[in-house]
TrEMBL record:
It holds the Pfam family SASA. Residues 107-335 form the Sialate O-acetylesterase domain. This is Sialate O-acetylesterase. The lineage of its organism: Bacteria, Pseudomonadati, Bacteroidota, Bacteroidia, Bacteroidales. GO terms for molecular function: sialate O-acetylesterase activity.
Length: 451
């Protein structure tokens, strides 16, 4: 009954005061070429003539939706989306019609972070992206994947809009699109066979504090996250941490707050949160385990944050560059997590084994691992390296490690260490991975101590 009354009022207002209507204004993320989340209640919003009726019609249903703008002209309503498909159109009018064209419906992910998320497929001078040129050569606009890249901006106050544009995947457009996000979306689309929308909001050199609404320095949240909060998503991707290596302890406080804040702002429940552990790099200006401690924070939070998963990149680091070129591996590993944990596909590896506990016996340390999607651990590039053990003097010495395949454990010892009590693996800023699972996924650096 209320809807019928609202429709009648809108009809009367439209025909008695048509000269008062102004053209609908929409946020940039609601535009031609956008991707909307399938089988969802998605929000549409914008500005119209104050206190006017706004009519919205979706081509996939032919249904009309009606709402009224407030005294500032702001309006918002919710429409239902069908299963994946398109292209579709949306008509929005308060007297002067705006038509959004070439809309796809599929899976939408928000990709956040700093420079490793922002790094485009064309790379940067001296920092190429492996495999990107082949992607650009084969790029086709008809491939059902769209990217919206948020322009970098900061603000002391929450903003209403961002600068950006939904782009089709032509070579020219993809050159400047996030490599990690694209490789993720490409594999997701190929497996799910549905359109994929990627919203990339990343700022080079940013610390996690600037993305947190609770932080005094929440300038990036205000400008690059808050304006997107009404756009319906499937989940979040996060690749950040390098800039927080100066203070791992503070990072441990902020990190679990970030996904919690995102979920509260979007109000869609515990949306998936998949993130990338930072890769090894020789931070010459930092203490030699500072980056390893940030990796440790990220590792521990994988089990503490609900509906989350972490990609290990211990095998992808470059000693002299903190922008590893192997972005395809990063994007695909993120997709493995989503395909397994969100879309419930089975039969492949998606999560690296993690350190669980140790047992000391006969001057040897026996390491037990927690296995999720794999069965065993193995050295891929020869013998196991990067292990250290220490006795009660807390002095670590290089150690030999071997795999007990029957028990799926690693046994570590050192000739000059009697009665060892602690073990570390690859616990340096820069290191090389030597421990993998049977799917080729690397095991994260870890330590049994908290010294």
């Amino acid at each position: 009954m209320q809807k019928k009354i609202l429709n009648l009022l809108c009809f009367i207002v439209f025909f008695t005061s048509s000269t008062l209507f102004a053209k609908i204004q929409l946020p940039t993320v609601l535009s031609h070429n956008m991707v909307l989340q399938q089988k969802s209640q998605v929000k549409l919003w914008g500005k119209a003539t104050p206190n006017s009726c706004v009519n919205v019609k979706t081509s996939w249903s032919g249904q009309n939706f009606v709402t009224q703008s407030d005294f500032n002209g702001k309006w918002q309503l919710v429409v239902s989306t069908p299963s994946a498909g398109g292209p579709y159109e949306i008509s929005i009018t308060d007297g002067e019609e705006v038509i959004l064209k070439d809309i796809l419906i599929g899976e939408v992910w928000l990709c956040l972070g700093q420079s490793n998320m922002a790094l485009p497929l064309k790379g940067r001078p001296g920092q190429p992206v492996e495999g990107a040129n082949e992607i650009l050569v084969k790029a086709k606009e008809t491939f059902p994947l769209r990217v919206f890249t948020v322009a970098c901006k900061s603000s002391e106050l929450p903003q209403d809009d961002v600068t950006g544009k939904w782009l089709k995947p032509s070579a020219e457009n993809l050159q400047n699109s996030s490599a990690v996000a694209y490789f993720y979306g490409q594999l997701l689309q190929e497996v799910l066979n549905v359109p994929v929308g990627l919203i990339v909001s990343a700022y080079s050199g940013s610390k996690i504090e600037s993305w947190l609404p609770e932080s005094p320095s929440c300038d990036l949240y205000n400008a690059m996250v808050y304006p997107l909060k009404d756009y319906t998503l499937k989940g979040f991707l996060w690749y950040q941490g390098e800039s927080n290596c100066v203070d791992p302890q503070s990072y441990s406080k902020y990190f679990p707050l970030f996904p919690k804040s995102l979920r509260e702002v979007w109000g869609l429940g515990e949306l998936p949160f998949y993130y990338v552990q930072i890769a090894p790099y020789a931070y010459q200006w930092l203490e030699e385990t500072a980056a390893a401690r940030v990796r440790e924070v990220q590792l521990k939070n994988e089990k503490l944050i609900p509906n989350a998963g972490m990609v290990v990149t211990l095998d992808l680091g470059v000693e002299t560059c903190n922008h590893p070129p192997k972005k395809k591996e990063v994007g695909h590993r993120l997709a493995y997590l989503a395909l397994a944990k969100t879309y419930h596909h089975k039969g492949f590896g998606y999560q690296s084994p993690t350190y669980e506990s140790i047992e000391v016996k006969d001057n040897e340390i026996i390491i037990t691992f927690d296995y999720t999607s794999s069965y065993c651990i193995a050295p891929i590039y020869g013998k196991l390296e990067g292990f250290e053990i220490a006795a009660s003097d807390r002095v670590f010495y290089p150690a030999e490690a071997k795999i007990d395949y029957e028990r799926r454990k690693v046994i570590v010892s050192a000739k000059n260490v009697s009665n060892p009590i602690a073990v570390r693996y690859a616990f340096k800023n820069y290191t090389r991975a030597s421990l993998f699972d049977d799917y080729g996924l690397p095991v994260s650096s870890f330590r049994s101590d908290d010294w």
